[in-house]
Write a structure and sequence with these properties.
single chain; 103 residues
Length: 103
């Protein structure tokens, strides 16, 4: 405010960079939560009309328990674990950068 910055400029150059690590953490956790939701899909829609609510974890459940295709379920699980590992490693790398406060 001392240098004449308006509210939008203060938000863009001061507030948003300070919230950066928190926003990244919340976005990654929300994405991981969205990828691992299967119980609500099973209870509410059981896959929905034409697999409209199908996610990877529910697909693994369908292959293992409904279709008795354990090999395909295991392969999908390996892919799922690899994707979750990459997302977690990427988020840790972004969070490690963090913000360095200058004095």
């Amino acid at each position: 405010m001392l240098e004449g910055a308006g509210p939008v400029r203060r938000f863009r150059h001061v507030t948003l960079p300070l919230l950066g690590p928190t926003l990244v953490f919340v976005l990654v956790i929300a994405l991981l939560n969205a990828l691992t939701q299967a119980d609500q899909i099973v209870v509410m829609t059981d896959g929905g009309p034409s697999d409209a609510t199908n996610v990877l974890l529910f697909y693994i459940y369908q292959q293992a328990h409904q279709n008795n295709d354990i090999g395909l379920a295991a392969a999908a699980t390996a892919v799922s674990v690899a994707v979750l590992f990459v997302l977690s490693a990427g988020s840790l790398r972004v969070l490690e950068r963090g913000i360095h406060y200058e004095s």
